[in-house]
Amino acid sequence: MSFDKEMQEALVTFTVESAELLESMESGLMELENIENPEETINAIFRAAHTIKGSSGLFGLDHIVRFTHVVESLLDALRDGKLVVSSDLIAALLPCCDHLNSLIEDVANGNVKENPEVTESGNQLLQVLRPYLETPAAADTNVVEFQEKIESVETIAGNNIESGNWHLFLKFNENCLRDGMDPLAFIRYLTTLGEIVDVTTFSYTMPDAETMDPETSYLAFKVILKSDADKETIEGVFEFVRDGSYINILPLENRIPYYAELIMSLNEDSDQLGALLLKCGIITQRELEDGLKSQQVRADAQQPTLRLGEILVEQQVVQQPLVNAALEKQTQIKDNKARENQSIRVDAERLDKLIDLIGELVISGAGVNLRAPLSGDDILQELTGEVMRLIEEVRDSALQLRMVPIGTTFSRFQRVVRDVSKELGKDIELIISGSDTEVDKAVVEKISDPLMHLVRNSMDHGIENAELRQQRGKPARGTLRLNAYHISGSIVIEVSDDGGGLNRDRILEKAIERGMVSANANLSDQEVFALIFEPGFSTAQQVSNLSGRGVGMDVVKRNVTALRGSIEVTSQIGIGTTLRINLPLTLAIIDGFLVGVDQSTFVIPLDRVVECVELPVDVEHRDYMDLRSEVLPLIRLRPLFNISGVLPRRENVVVVDHGGNKTGFIVDHLLGEFQTVIKPLGKLFAHLQGVAGSTILGNGKVALILDVSTLIESIDRKNTALPRNLTHQST
Questions:
Q1: 404-584 is classed CATH 3.30.565.10
Q2: What would the pLDDT profile of 235-270 be if each residue is shown by its tens digit?
Q3: Which CATH number fits domain 5-149: 1.20.1250.20, 1.20.58.340, 3.40.50.450, 1.20.120.160?
Q4: pLDDT digits (tens, 9 = 90+) for 601-615
Q5: Distance CA 18, CA 623 (A)
């Protein structure tokens, strides 16, 4: 199968939209067990599967159509109340979502042809669905073709009709014989288009023999035709005898579901009912024109207005169910157009390019803002200030384009919790809150793996089994919570459980045993709990498929740190544990506070800055100071970054917040707020601790951006003399 460029672009859109539909299907299936009235959710799941099947058919992806059709048949039975929601049914459908996702991924990777091995694995999944399907045809593991299924017909008007798809009712003009037209010749000609399955002759207009005119046509015929020809072609057979005749062509009742499906699967821009019916071949152009003329005649005669669909049904050129399907499709198209008017899909690379350009604009604007005061032109300075304000608004607007709700990431864990809890033999409920909290798309993509580690770890190590929970007076069902909220320009993500909590003494004992801390070390709870993030550290007594090998938590810490974030742990024995991740809202541009040390310049993220104070003279070489009866640990940036030079007459302290504790950075100069475009450091500088990146100042110089959390933690590890355990004590 070959695709031109336009088709390739359409195929990309198909894969993206199908992935979103599968995601909504999975979320809907996960909700079914927990809602009292699942009808709307079932309908949404069915529509998602139906849309995927219809779109796959447009691209000739028959293997996806066949598989999805069986899943859709089961969902249809569920929708009609023939099946009831059960845990086993959902367990059978969820792997089907996974299989469809793999099929769509294959298409996205350019593999549009059917893979026999993948098809076989799909057939095994359909075997599981067999008990739920009512008809053998739908449950067949080889999955019959869609067309074969919809062409299975019912008994019509008492005739034993095994096949056929068109119903023709023919009443020829009574003068047709005089005009040299033989009705039987037209009926025989139909065999060139297909197979005549049944012919019924009606003689109700036939007069007595004494009054009968042998040159007059009295008979009418009902013909059941099996043909691949469309309605327009069949109607063309009777073109020469149409005047004065009644030629009525309709799809058989058994074909109505097929045409209804065809209508719903149309990729049509027009939301006109007539155009939809015409596109599917349900009506002909002549029938549409006649219907529109009839509608206009009624309007001109000031008769009660009828909709086109009502007129077409009245004229018996289309059945009511097909009009209903077209009306539903009409509403769907209008809704889609309304949604398209509200939002558009933008390629992520274009957004990244826009952010980069705005970053350069911020840098250039800072340079202009720096030089403007030197000109002595008040108007220029005023205009420069206005430009900087507009740049800031453009920056904020552009960053908002990259913001997405974190709820999409959270919802994926419904499936994880379900599967892992069954594997562990535990009953665990996932509660999600703060799903509307927005964060940069890049942050969302990079936080998924760390969250996966934390969720699985909480389920494996944190939440006890049902028997132990009942012994401890807890509900048999454990609770795992995912929560997100904004605070001080950052996003906080919490993973909480109501399990047994972290055993402080056991963690400390293991750390002493491994030589990580000295036996007489006096560590706070936070410092002890932080040990679980050390490489290879584990207190698990046995290794499971999920955890216990000492890998994972250090990876979590490393990934969170790479996002300029921090992670902290609070836990109580017997009550539970909360792991709290603090992340910046965006990774591209931040508000910073500029400080100077001799000729060097540093940027501290503004959301971490609490206040600035003058360094007391009596501090001298101490590493702490008195800040309103509170001990404030100090970090001197000059020796830390090997900066020489003459000390200024007065040094300053920038007080920053880290995990609820305060620390002071000693600097020479306070240079004020600064819009900071983050430029990543090269691999050569990857080993640097406490530096999140760099930025270019308005004067062209490079300033390092300090990673407050990493910087303080690295100094804590190197300098045990730093009195961090005094932060909340009074002097």
A1: yes
A2: 888 888 888 888 888 887 777 777 777 777 776 666
A3: 1.20.120.160
A4: 999 988 888 999 999
A5: 59
